[in-house]
Specification:
five-stranded mixed barrel; globular; about 325 residues; alpha+beta; about 15% helix; six-stranded antiparallel sheet; 5 helices
Amino acid sequence: MSGTETPPDELYERLAAYEGRSAATAGVGRDPVNLPMIRHWCEAMGDAHPAYEGPGAVAPPTMLQAWTMGGLSGHAGRSEAYDELSALLDGAGYTSVVATDCEQEYLRPLRPGDAITFDAVIESVSPRKTTKLGTGHFVTTRMDVLADGELAGTHRFRILKYAPAGRPPKPEQRASKHEQRTPETAAAAPRRPRPVVNRDNAGFWEGVAAHRLLIQRCGDCASLRLPWLPGCAECGSPEWDTVEASGAGTVYSYVVMHHPPFPAFDPPYAVGLVELAEGVRIVSNVVGVPYDKVRIGMPVRLEFLRVDDELELPVFRAGGEG
């Protein structure tokens, strides 16, 4: 440790002093709760519950945070304390950030016309933790969301500010994307994260290994579902079999990932929500076209990408030609 570095115990003492300080006070939602936003959300999530439409509609509870978000321009009312805390972590070398989880508590439904305000507080900062991503501190922020002045719900959001365990090489040190990968360079490359395989989805990954994209089909009502679930969301039946996807699909929605950088990934790249010909949707990479050329409605076709000796993934190539 150099003489300019802050000892971990001293740093944590300084970080913990921010607990209980305001992160935002009297923040105002940019729009009242409204039916168009509810409709867009439900269409994106595939949620057709009748409670979210019509004259007596309420907003889906999981939209709680949506009404508080400031968009690309952010919120002008954020306090200095959170910025100071982030700067302190950055200065200590914890410059990367990843969202780890959130918790929400719903106290009353939100209805079209409700005016949203919110207060946020830095609830906790953890001691230094070592994770697979790297070493850093977890920061938890609690937001109280009010509708017309009445507490409607609480949103806890936790991030990890960390120093990556293995930083990717600088751009000038990377091999050209057009160079042929050799077994030696492939072995030295960072490994992609492994999917979590359990008893509920093992059949899906067995299908991928055999170059088959399998969709669950309810044994009672015949509803199709993807991703795999232990029971039918429509009728609750635990009985099911599978059908194989044809491989045809279109881009239903997409995002372009620019940040944060992560070993084994080379941003920017496009991640699409692909609607299969069978009517279900799957999240995967869109390949075969520059990331800035991906468009909603673009036809795509399933193929399988071998990432390494152990992992193969379904991806979708633009163009839709088999």
